[in-house]
Design goal:
Blueprint (H helix, E strand, L loop, with lengths): L3 H9 L6 H11 L2 H5 L3 H4 L7 H11 L4 H11 L3 E2 L8 H4 L8 E5 L3 H4 L5 E5 L6 H16 L3 E4 L5 H11 L4 E4 L13 H10 E5 L11 H12 L2 E4 L7 H11 L3 E4 L10 H8 L3 E2 L4 H9 L13 H4 L5 H9 L5 E2 H8 L3 H13 L3 E4 L3 E4 L1
Length: about 375
């Protein structure tokens, strides 16, 4: 039997099928294996599948063999996850556009993948001022010492400073690349790259040997936002990739913080814009920031010995609505969405939390049942 992960890979090879359409396919058919064998008419029922996309699917699908493709891909890329893999980062899976393939190198910590260890993204300009560097170092150090994993993009400037400070403080860090995980960019960060491999991870949605491309970096920013519980923007001009990350963070329901700066400082203009739009201030009292970040709900596993019935009254209204829609028999994802009347993304997030709390179990084929 061909693994579901092989179909994530196969679908991703078809031009015009991006992460958003893949997510819709999975939600509509329950599994991408089922979608692979669907007719043209059935595929046309999925939102976003227009005439041209359907023609590409029909033409290219017949030339692809998922099992063979998956085996060859494993030989060329030794470490990667698909959303079908239980180790795929849970927070990233909550987003509407999780990468169909997430490659990684370094030291995996499953608590991070399960959402049980807090991860905070730090982003900013490639040309920071002394002020931005100083505060990036202080905040990254404080986060690392208090058990947070620092996520950034290994670019010059703020990214580099956040990675280095976190590791110097004895913490973990994750670098999200816009290249293959074996390609170091910028090249001057080759020593930093080697250090990260021993104190965290480098991840990317691009296969090995993929060179840098200007279109890759804005896309990778959604992964930084998706992995993180909150995003801290240290210094950013108005035209900055950091603002793209903040936009994704808002879309994904993450908290956004910005470092205030002077009105006439060019590197601070993006931060001031974010603050005017409702981002939280990063203030001098770091204890207050740590308290706020610590108050962000984590995906905490509950001891299996605890009876679910005793905990049901403490569920949020959204979680209660989803659990009420569950029956003793396994139900497909689409049916649960229909029963609750909630958005598919909200249902997916609720199911993830309920599963980690021990109230439900996920079965093959995107089916769920009460535990």
């Amino acid at each position: 039997m061909v693994e579901e992960g092989a179909y994530w890979l196969a679908w991703a090879q078809i031009s015009g099928i991006g992460p958003v359409l893949l997510r819709r396919l999975q939600q509509h058919f329950g599994t991408l294996a089922t979608a692979w064998n669907a007719t043209k008419v059935q595929l046309g029922e999925v939102e976003g599948f227009g005439f041209q996309t359907l023609e590409k699917v029909v033409q290219q699908r017949s030339r692809l063999h998922p099992e063979q493709l998956f085996t060859k891909h494993q030989q060329e890329n030794s470490h990667f996850w698909t959303p079908a893999n239980p180790d795929y980062p849970r927070l990233l899976l909550e987003t509407p556009s999780p990468p169909p393939i997430l490659y990684y190198r370094g030291e995996v910590e499953l608590q991070e993948n399960l959402g049980q260890k807090p991860m905070v993204g730090i982003v900013g300009t490639r040309q920071p001022s002394e002020y931005g560097i100083r505060w990036t170092r202080q905040i990254s150090t404080a986060l690392a010492k208090n058990g947070f994993t620092v996520v950034s993009g290994m670019a010059e400037g703020i990214d580099t400073e956040s990675h280095i400070a976190a590791m110097k403080a004895g913490g973990r860090t994750i670098a999200v690349l816009g290249t293959g995980v074996d390609v170091i960019y910028p090249h001057k960060n080759r020593d930093l790259y080697k250090q990260i491999l021993t104190a965290g991870l480098v991840v990317s949605e691009y296969p090995t040997k993929t060179p840098p491309d200007r279109t890759h970096f804005p896309r990778r920013n959604r992964i930084i936002a998706g992995l993180s519980r909150a995003i801290l923007v240290m210094e950013a001009p108005l035209k900055s990739g950091a603002l793209i990350t903040a936009t994704y963070a808002n879309e994904f329901g993450r908290d956004v913080y910005a470092l205030p700066g002077r009105l006439d400082d060019y590197p601070s203009q993006g931060c001031l814009k974010l603050l005017s739009q409702g981002a939280s201030f990063i203030l001098k009292e770091l204890d207050e920031l740590l308290t706020m970040l610590g108050a962000i709900p984590q995906i905490d596993a509950i001891e299996a010995s605890t009876a679910p019935e005793q905990l049901m009254p403490t569920l949020s209204p959204e979680l209660q609505k989803v659990i009420d829609a569950m029956a003793s028999d396994a139900l497909p994802f689409d049916f649960i969405v229909q029963q609750t009347g909630m958005a598919a993304g909200s249902v997916s997030s609720a199911l993830l939390q309920l599963e980690l709390m021990g109230f439900i179990s996920q079965l093959p084929g995107m089916r769920y049942q009460k535990s």
